[in-house]
């Protein structure tokens, strides 16, 4: 039988033999109290991913695989249900509302537009771990939403803090092309750099036939010779940065974000060294850099396709799935302030009263002998 959600163990104990005993007489055998066993319902997590989107199904499956790998390692008392969506914001919003109605915690959406849609609609009614950042104007508006997506802007701000904090006079130039993520990263770096009272200039290089325009590089070289910055921030990929360095040389200290690392960690053993990037510094996640990292060694890696090089973006999203489950697990345990030495970085989380806060500290690295190698944190 049950009582107020508690289950009582049954017993064959009978008290008939004590009916005629005088009050106060000794009871020949002790009476066992019934065993009380609490019934704890499992925490229901809805994993909201765009698996019905032709363009996003591969990245959604990577996040799902990482999330389930972490769940299988530590399932606890958690049930995970996949909620499939497309990539249209309205579709994501409807799926989110349905997921929240039947779950204790929602993990997702995975797209910036999807996160923005649920924030703008004030739809957050359950603890929600978004896997992308909302648009900047919507950030911090939902007390029940923790955004832990991978962010080039956060990487850029971390580079600015590492190199400019405490400095009184240090000029930097941020270089990008017209690609959206590059513009966002460069703008975030410049804003953070100027926020510390330092000088920063943004330069956007034109593209021509898939390469940086040669005239733009010549103009940049002349500009740098005149400005003499102490640091270059390159919001570029590895191939573009090679082209940049061949044009302007390597005299100025150069920093970049994770897109400067073009290979999965295991593939560097057979990759052609990028000697033109020697000395360039960057940030990336432990999953891509540190084979001996405790968490990296804990979880299985995605199976390799012998006919295809691993995608660094897919690897990073798989790692995001792992850390998303670990954060959700802590929230399921009613943790409000905690840190995790995660596979995507060191995570600091506040989720409870007040505005949720999330910070990811990435791993510094450097090109040495043409290969990306981790550095000791500064």
UniProtKB/TrEMBL annotation:
InterPro entries named among the record's database cross-references: LpoA, Peripla_BP_I
Any one GO BP annotation for this protein: peptidoglycan biosynthetic process
GO CC annotation terms, alphabetical: periplasmic side of cell outer membrane
Keywords: Membrane
Residues annotated as transmembrane: none
GO molecular function list: enzyme regulator activity
Name under which the protein is recorded: LppC family lipoprotein
Species, as recorded: Oxalicibacterium flavum
